Amino acid sequence: LFLGAGSVMHALSGETRLAKMGGLKKHLPVTHMTFLIAGLAIAGVPPLAGFFSKDEILWKTFSSPYGSTIFYSIALATAGLTAFYMFRMIYLTFYGGSRVDPTVMNHVHESPKVMTIPLAALAVLSIVGGWIGIPHIFHIPNLIDEFLHPVFASKGVVAAPQATTTDYSVEGILMGISVIVALAGIALAARIYLHNPKIAGTL
After folding, report:
1. What is the distance in angstroms between the CA of the first residue and the CA of the last residue of the chain?
2. CA 50 to CA 41: how far, in whole Å?
3. Which end of the chain is more exposed for a tag (fewer CB within 10 A), N or C?
4. pLDDT over 80 at 149, yes or no
5. Separation between Cα atoms, residue 173 and residue 126, nearest integer Å
6. CA torsion angle for 63, 69, 73, 76 (degrees, to 10)?
7. Tell me, what DSSP letter sits at residue 19?
């Protein structure tokens, strides 16, 4: 996202204010697409990488001996806020009417390949990166767990007990809730910043 933000700033001659952006989707197609993929990943939309990492965090805040429903609720609310603010930024930057200064608009251009190629590579990783840490509920080896096991074992951390069918059912339900919360955050951002911007001013 930092690279994507840099690409937008480059296109707008250094502009950093969202209030001076908008409608850039057609002018910055590569930056827009990679930014959108990154936003969906960070929001925790499956099957992107952020979904798997977010699910693991939420599941552990609920199921770990150190976790609780309070910790889980806080983490879930934070995940919803993350989806909301990420798409607030995306909507205000790439969608809606243009608020770009006319003198800057005359020079808006897609970033050079030295920026767009790394953006595309990172977008691909956002899509496939999570598949090395798939939750146990899918009965597929979790390569991250296997990779980190010697580290935790050396520190005397006891491995978690084998998950039961009940655990899988609960994790599946919580996974569904987290996706709903992410989509709700995205939809709320669209409602406020895309479909009815006056709401933001009122709030």
Report:
1. 27
2. 4
3. C
4. no
5. 24
6. 10
7. G
Residue 4: both structure tokens together: 């994507």
* The model's pTM: 0.82
DSSP string, 58-105: HHHHHHSTT--HHHHHHHHHHHHHHHHHHHHHHHHHHSSS--S-HHHH
Q: At what angle do helices 69-94 and 49-63 cross, to 10 degrees?
A: 160
Beta-carbon contacts of 84 under 8 Å, excluding residues fewer than 6 positions away, are 185, 186, 188, 189
User: Would you give the distance in Å from CA 149 to the centre of its chain?
Assistant: 27
More confident residue, 75 or 10: 75
What is the reported pLDDT for 41? 94
**CA–CA gap between residue 198 and residue 109 (Å, rounded):** 29
Do 30 and 10 contact (CB within 8 A), yes or no? no
